[in-house]
Amino acid sequence: MSKINSLFQKMTFKIHGDERGSLISLESLKNIPFDIKRIYYIFDTKPDVVRGLHAHKNLKQVLICTSGSCKIRLDNGFEENIFNLNNASEGILIESLVWREMYDFSPDCVLMVLANENYDENDYIRDYKTFLSLL
Ligand code: T46
User: Fold this and answer.
1) Ligand 1, residues 74, 105, 113, 118: which to mutate, most atoms within 8 A of Cβ?
2) CB neighbours of 5 closer than 8 A, spacing ≥ 6?
3) Separation of 78 CA from ligand 1 center, angstroms?
4) Binding-site residues, ligand 1, Cβ < 6 A
5) Residue 27, helix vs strand vs coil
6) Are 56 and 97 in contact, with CB atoms under 8 Å apart?
7) Is 121 helix (H, G, I), strand (E, B) or coil?
8) Which of 66, 101, 59, 56 is nearest to 86 (CA)?
9) Hey, where are the domains in the chain?
10) Ranges assigned E (strand) in the chain
11) Which among 51, 54, 60, 71 is annotated as catalytic?
12) CA of 20 to the centre of ligand 1 (A)
C-alpha cells in the first residue's frame, strides 16, 4: 500500500515585537526546515480566481500570508483539508506529492512562498489523474 503523505505541517514563527511594531525572521535550517533556494509572492489576485491546481514531484515549500488572507485546499489522494492562511506569523509546510488549490484571496492578500528548489516546470504535475497514478 502506498505511503500516505502528510497534507501539511502548521508552523508558527516567533514575533520580535516592540513599541515600534513586529518583525519575523525566516532562516534556512533554523525555523525553515530546508535550504531556501527561491522566494516568490502572489499578490493582486483577482476575485474568484483559483490558483495552483497542481502537485509537485519533489518540491517542498512553506506558504505564509504576510498580508490579508486566502484559503488553500490540500489533497494527498487519500484525504483533503482546507487551511485558512490569515496570519503573518503562521505558515504551512507542504511536502511534495500534495495537490494544492488556492482561492478566496482577499484584495490585500500577499501570499509569500519559500521553496527548496529553483523554478522547474518539469517538477509540476498539472493533471489530477496523473497525480493519483504517481502515489
Ligand atoms: C505552488 C503555488 C503555491 C516563474 O517564472 N517562476 C516561479 O518561481 C514561479 C512559482 C512561477 N513562475 C511563472 C510560471 C507561470 O508563467 O509564473 C507564472 C505563474 O505561475 P503558476 O501558474 O505556476 O502559479 P500558481 O499560483 O498556480 O502556483 C504557484 C507555484 O507555481 C506553485 O509551485 O505550489 O504557487
Assistant:
1) 113
2) 76, 95, 96, 97, 98, 135
3) 25
4) 38, 40, 42, 51-52, 61, 63, 100, 113, 119
5) coil
6) yes
7) helix
8) 66
9) 3-15+24-134
10) 9-12, 16-18, 21-23, 38-43, 51-56, 61-67, 70-75, 80-85, 90-94, 99-103, 110-115, 124-125
11) 54
12) 34
| CATH placement of domain 3-15+24-134 | 2.60.120.10
Chain-wide mean pLDDT for the chain?
95
pTM of the model: 0.96
* Nearest CA residue ID for atom 28, ligand 1: 52
pLDDT confidence of 4, banded at 50, 70, 90?
low
How far, in Å, CA of 124 to CA of 9, rounded? 21
Q: For residue 17, report the distance from its CA to the centre of ligand 1, in Å.
A: 32
Give the mean pLDDT of 12-16.
Answer: 98
Residue in 51, 83, 101, 131 to alter for ligand 1 test, most ligand atoms within 8 A of Cβ: 51
